[in-house]
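During the reporting period the student researcher (J.K.) took over the structure-prediction task from the postdoctoral fellow and processed the backlog of single-chain submissions. One of the processed entries is reproduced below for the supervisory committee.
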Amino acid sequence: MARNNHTPSEKTPAPIGRHEELLTDWASDREAFKNVSWGKSMMWIFLLSDTFIFGTFLTGYMTVRMTTTVPWPNPSEVFALTIGGVELPLVLIAIMTFILISSSGTMAMAVNMGYRGDRKKAGILMLVTALFGLSFVSMQAFEWTKLIHEGVRPWENPFGAHQFGATFFMITGFHGLHVSVGVIYLTVVAIKVLKGDYERRGDYQIVEITGLYWHFVDLVWVFIFAFFYLW
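J.K. obtained the following structure tokens:
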């Protein structure tokens, strides 16, 4: 007969339950984000949700464009600008893209100056970034006015497929709204930086958080530029 080698005092370890596993995972997540500020975490969550929205819009645009039976408008013709009697394709869009990419550079320098504690340079660079953004929105308003004057509407389009107007105005308008909000956000934070509000607190992380939003807006424009103007 086989003997039981376990003494009465020995106990078999209890298996880890589902509840304990969840608590362990949650604790590890807290440890990973322990040094991340609340403001930065909330900004990342907001940008993640916005990524899904823009991704859905662009996916819808691709679906509409690939399934329509009517020819899609030629971007070189629709977005051409006549200067001195010469029709230049995509020249306005190229300037807008250059301005927005340049604004990413000034924003990055503003974040750097903020962490160095140079509030004057950080504030000025943020205002320059806001000025770039304002220029972009102004050019976009000019582009919209031109297209509307030529007969492009969300429900019709003299250049080809009617879906072009609906998708163009919706996606570029939603992005333009983000840029406009960013200009206001940048201006408010820049004024507070120049006034020394964050210097008294000894924390310039708000400049980095603002930069996260602005870089996201710039990145989204790269995809819009590729989908609408180059495809």
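The committee noted the following: The CA atoms of residues 137 and 176 lie 6 Å apart.
J.K. will present the remaining backlog at the next meeting.
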